[in-house]
Amino acid sequence: MEKIDLDLDNENEMTFNVVIEGTRPGEPLCRLMIENEDMSFSMQGDFLPNNEVSIVIPPLKGMLKEGSYDSYLEVLVDDRVFIPLEMQINFEESVKVMAETVKRKKRKPVKATASLVSASIKKKNEGRKVITQEEEEVEESVVKKHPAKKRRDERKVVTGNDIESMVEALRNKLRKK
After folding, report:
1. Thinking of the domain 2-92, which architecture would CATH place it in?
2. CB within 8 A of 28, min separation 6: which ones?
3. Rounded to whole angstroms, how far apart are CA atoms 156 and 58?
4. Strands 119-123 and 28-35, sheet pairing
5. Strand partners, 109
6. Do residues 78 and 52 lie in contact, with contact meaning Cβ atoms separated by under 8 Å?
7. What whole-number distance in Å separates Cα of residue 96 and Cα of residue 170?
8. How many Cα atoms occupy the beta-carbon half-sphere of 155 within 13 Å?
9. pLDDT tens digits for 43-89?
10. Where are the domains positioned within the chain?
């Protein structure tokens, strides 16, 4: 028995040389049968010149699993069935990609810290004033804000009264027209 390797996830084409002899030429039909435990698959062939038969096997991934299957070429002439060739077809996936997660240790987050040791402020009349770190922290918490927070705080908040006055203004404008 012949053994043939085919791709499970790609289209395959097989060509057979089939000679039909007889006194009465009938209308022949040729097909490839692939047998599974539960079901059989049948692919019909096309007759080509020079006694050749071409059979296209579509991708069978999802219908068959990888492995070897009993197969045979079946030729039907009139009401008679002939099995001129038996073979084992081994289906394999053309490309396999496997992936799995790899556990990594958690990295400690990167931190950056800074502290002000001293700063001086120059005032017009007094000269220089030295600010201690404690005074700077108090001053910094009051004065410094993140730019995005500043913009958020500076936005005008629209109240219900504002909306009512805008709607009333639009109504008046529409009445005038």
Report:
1. Sandwich (2.60)
2. 18, 20, 47, 75, 76, 77
3. 66
4. unpaired
5. none
6. no
7. 66
8. 8
9. 999 998 888 999 999 999 888 899 999 999 999 988 889 999 999 99
10. 2-92, 117-154
